[in-house]
Amino acid sequence: MTDGAKTAEIHTREVEPFGAAPKPATNLRWLLFLVPLLLLIALGALLASNLGKDPKIVPSPLIGKPAPNFSTFDLLSGAVVSSETLRGQAFVLNVWASWCAVCQLEHPVFNAYKQTPGALPVIGLNYKDAPDDAKRWLAQLGNPYQQIAVDASGKIGLDLGVYGAPETYFIDRNGIIRFKQIGEMTAQILAEQTALIGGAQ
Amino acid sequence: MMFRSCITAIALVFICTSALISPAHAIDPLPFTDLKQEQRFQAVTAELRCLQCQNQNLADSDAGLAKDMRQQIFEMMQKGDSDQQIKQYMIDRYGDFVIYSPPFNWQNSLLWLLPLFAAVGGITFVSLHFRSARQLAAAHSKTGENPRSNTEPGARAPQVDAGDNW
Question: What is the pTM of this model?
Answer without folding.
Answer: 0.69
